[in-house]
Design a protein that fits this description.
By secondary structure, this protein is an alpha+beta fold. The chain contains five helices and five strands; from the N terminus they run αααββαβββα.
């Protein structure tokens, strides 16, 4: 019979550091899925900061350039999305704006829920949705 250890016990064995295996066991997501979720959340936060700066300078464009919020760590693609549209999308912690191309969608963790000419909206599903909500800077 396999023994099960708590995450606290595993952290104690690794000098307080959470091992990648322990992190994966805590959420049920693989290390690469967690890394992808963190990458998406990072670019979402960058987009939030760009919008915040625009508001402070009384410059709130009708359409704004934003970074693609896809899971690909090497993606630096910029997309155009309307200010009001971005706000509507951001009301949902599990929704992300991505470049309008299947290569920017992680089908194992998200669904395309809107398709526009300059961007698509994806929604995280299952365990990836819970992690996206947890990492949402607006919560």
């Amino acid at each position: 019979m396999a023994s099960t250890k708590s995450s606290a016990a595993i952290r104690a064995e690794t000098n307080g550091r959470t091992s990648p295996m322990a992190e994966s066991a805590d959420t049920g997501l693989s290390v690469s899925e967690k890394r992808a979720a963190r990458n998406q959340s990072l670019f979402r936060e960058v987009n939030e900061r760009m919008r915040e700066m625009a508001r402070h300078e009384d410059w709130y464009p009708v359409e704004q350039e934003a970074f693609c919020e896809c899971a690909d760590e090497s993606c630096m693609r910029r997309i155009m999305v309307g200010g009001a549209e971005y706000e509507r999308i951001r009301e949902h912690g599990t929704w992300f704006v991505v470049a309008p191309n299947d290569g920017h969608v992680a089908p194992q963790a998200e669904l395309v829920i809107e398709r526009h000419e300059t961007y698509w909206v994806v929604e995280k599903v299952r365990k990836a949705a819970a992690l996206a909500d947890e990492l949402d800077p607006r919560d």
